[in-house]
Amino acid sequence: MTTAKVSPKKTKKAKDILLFASPNNSSDMRWFTNFSCGDAFLAFTARGKKIAAITLLEIVRFRQQSGFDVVLDFGAELAKLRETNPSANTPELIAHFAKRYKVSSWTVPADFPAGLFVKLHQLGVKLSVGSSPFFPQRVIKTEEELEKIRAGNRAACAGFKAVEKILKESVIDKKGFVNWQGKTLTSETLRAAIDHACLDEGGINVEGLIAAAGDQGADCHCSGFGPIRANQLIVCDIFPRIAATGYFGDMTRTYLKGKASPEQRKLVETVKKAHDKAMLNVRAGIAGYDVYKSTVEFFANAGYKTGVVDGAPTGFFHGLGHGVGLDVHEAPNLGGRSVMTDPLRENMVVTIEPGLYYPGIGGCRIEDVVVVRKDGCELLSKHPYKWEIA
To answer: Which residues neighbour 87 within 8 Å (Cβ) at sequence distance 6 or greater?
Structure first.
């Protein structure tokens, strides 16, 4: 994994940074330290060096993996400080490090613990909150990171294969329900099968996943529940994180067991055309918002209106895509609430996921992950789009 580098030459101009978090809960900390563990620890810069204070339980691995210049035993440092200040804890230790390493001020991320921020302020430690994203260089992925994202998408593809296998093996009973292995097929059964398939590829669906049929699929982020009927569109959105690296994949396919209605067929075909069109538009130099706006116009010209009906959003009411990496949703964003008007840059990674949602017809979303290249984009995910399974 590529980590942030701080050189003595650049430190004169760059702001020193301070993080206190668990890498398992903070993608910034995981990226900065190239390390994974469950407990929070200190990582900061001072005088051109990267310094960490971590528990003795993790210190050997951290020294091997992080590439930090100075690695301190958090417990030993705190015990020494308590010889003169018996009530000292994390805030006092940070203040002590500020004096030791002659740090005049630190910049912290927006999710820095509020209580710790206040206590450090009371101790006279100068802090400022950094912009978001905290490490803007994270939006440009290295080839090593691209391969890790590909692995996340391979895990997602294993989930789609599991869904397709179940739907092919299923039959439609007299009541119009999909029946698999003698039982009515449910969204819960599909999600369990997806989970198992992803695990076999090293992926964990830590953020959950979606297997939603019928009007549940028209509810965009509804995870899906209960029996699945024949001739319903089934939205399957799978975004596993590879346990070994922390990087996500993110893909969506839409299925139907039985025979699609003309309205459903047109809906799916229109979404696929929007997907293909957006893929052709993505390239370095184009604004993400322009790709999104083109998709909005395409759906409108195809006769699909976006609005609110009986209190529920319908049509194409979400963004076209988002960044993927150590977070399943990260910068940049292609439209929606967070509009990116700046040009896309080479080696940014984004999803392309147009969708249409109408209660009574159902929902359809098709999603792939691409890396932005100079003259176009390259797929980091690959799986067939066959959706109607008899």
So the answer is: none
DSSP string, 280-308: HH--TTSBHHHHHHHHHHHHHHTT---EE
Residue labelled with tokens 């996500």 = 248
**CA–CA separation, 136 vs 200, rounded Å?**
33
Provide the pairing of β-strand 307-309 with 251-257. unpaired
On whether the CB atoms of residues 285 and 341 are closer than 8 A, the answer is no
Instruction: Report d(CA 36, CA 26) in Å as an integer.
Output: 10
Specify whether the CB–CB gap between 210 and 225 falls below 8 A: no
Prediction pTM value: 0.92
For residue 221, report the phi and psi dihedrals to the nearest 5 degrees: -105, 15
pLDDT digits (tens, 9 = 90+) for 328-371: 999 998 986 556 678 999 999 999 999 999 999 999 999 999 99
Which sign, positive or negative, has the C-alpha torsion 324, 328, 332, 337?
positive
Task: Write the CB contacts of 225 (distance below 8 Å, at least 6 apart in sequence).
Answer: 186, 187, 188, 216
Per the CB < 8 A criterion, the answer to whether 106 and 94 are in contact is no
| Averaged pLDDT for residues 181-189 | 98
